[in-house]
Amino acid sequence: MLHNKILENYFKKLIVLIRNKHTNLLINTLILREQHYILVTKSMVFLRSVITNLVGKDLITTQEWTVEELRATLEVARELKRMYYYLGPSRMPDYLKKKVFIMLFYAPSTRTRSAFETAMELLGGHAQYVEARMTRMGEGEALKDIAKMYEIFGDAVGIRILDKAIDYKYGEGHKVIREFAKHANVPVINMADDQEHPTQALGDIMTMEEKLGNVRGKKFVIMWGYAPVIRGYSSIHADMLIATRFGMDVVVAHPPGFELPEKYVEWAKQNTKESGGSIEFVNDYRRALEGAHAVFPRSWCSRKLAELGASKFGEEELRIYQKYRDWRLKMEDLDLMDKHGIITHVLPVLRGYEADDEVMDSPRSVIYEQAENNMFAKAAVLLLTMGGLV
Ligand code: CP
After folding, report:
1. Which atom of ligand 1 is found nearest the CA of 371?
2. Is the model's pTM score more than 0.70?
3. Which residues sit opposite 129 in a β-bridge?
């Protein structure tokens, strides 16, 4: 009898315990669901407001977009990439049906033109290629008039103007894009000028996030590389700005005399204050590579060249480069990096100069994935600025 009583009590207690546990579990689950619902609802409402704000916006520098706008763009780019592989290109939604993106090229391109054209095609729109030299500009037609015409014919305009097209003179390309944007009442997208390449930056950070996970606190080395040709600052600035914006520890390694323009250095420093990242400039690329999670080896011009132009200073500039022929990313240099560190490049890479063939073809090189991500990043910029998602 006593034995039964003890057992009965024991079972009663057990049942209460189980009920409480279940109740608690149920309550916790409901709270979690509720929190999840609130979180998802809030973040979707926020995302929609960010996306709505991007309609009609120019992209001339990533500095003029908020971090939330840049993140939303990357989210859309990733979603487009998922759709592309899940649905296949022919079943991608035609968000930009009947929309036209006019691409005005003053300078050549292997990737950018092609990536933008494919992006427009995938989204159901059309990309129109215009070579500046084949327009009436050479006969003195005002940029303002062209901007007003293209605003009628297109829904957004992309412009590329850098390097030989402006005799490498710093600021000349950027000025043209700013002037165009002042008059055109449609989004103006910088497809690379002498100072910036914002859509490239988006594709590059997308790739680093894809390969490295959260990039905050990861070391990214932008390394000057020897080349027998002159190139401006476009992608260097673009990657330095976005990486510091996303909290990376950026190290820019270059020989003396290849310092970057002050405005961009200041911007990068400001970005690190806001993002918690860091920026450092060094003259020893091997020291810079120690523990690096990503490297980008590329040549850029001296400040003197950018000031005087290649027609005046080009020969002297190339002579200066000769002193730094050893600034080339080699296989042995990769041992200095984090063992999972990746090799990036916006391309074109000057193989055998900026970096060895084996480096660019090594399993750690992500250059082709980077080019692919650049296409999706460009698609996202077009989709958002032309209002295909609202
Ligand atoms: N990365 C890049 O802009 O390549 P292109 O100059 O070939 O367009």
Report:
1. 1
2. yes
3. 103
Yes or no: say if 150 and 157 are a contact pair by the CB < 8 Å rule. yes
Which DSSP symbol is given to 108? -
pLDDT in tens, 192-227: 999 999 999 999 999 999 999 999 999 999 999 999
Total residue length of the chain: 390
- From the number of C-beta atoms within 10 Å of its C-beta (0-12, 13-18, 19+), residue 42 rates as exposed
How close is the Cα of 347 to the center of ligand 1, in Å? 6
H/E stretch holding 382: helix 367-385
**Residue 287 contacts by C-beta under 8 Å, 6 or more apart in sequence?**
253
Please name the amino acid found at residue 390.
V
Give residue-wise pLDDT tens across range 336-375.
Answer: 999 999 999 999 999 999 999 999 999 999 999 999 999 9
Fold of 100-193: Rossmann fold (3.40.50)
- Token duo for residue 1: 């009898």
* Ligand 1 centroid from CA 116, angstroms: 11
Distance of CA 259 to the CA centre of its chain: 22
CA distances (Å), origin 133, targets 111, 136, 137, 221: 20, 8, 7, 37
198-371 is a CATH 3.40.50.1370 domain: yes
Mutate to test the pocket of ligand 1, among 103, 106, 109 (most ligand atoms within 8 A of CB): 109
| Alpha-carbon torsion angle 190, 196, 202, 204, nearest 10 | 130
Domain ranges of the chain: 4-93, 100-193, 198-371
Atom number, ligand 1, closest to the C-alpha of residue 110: 7
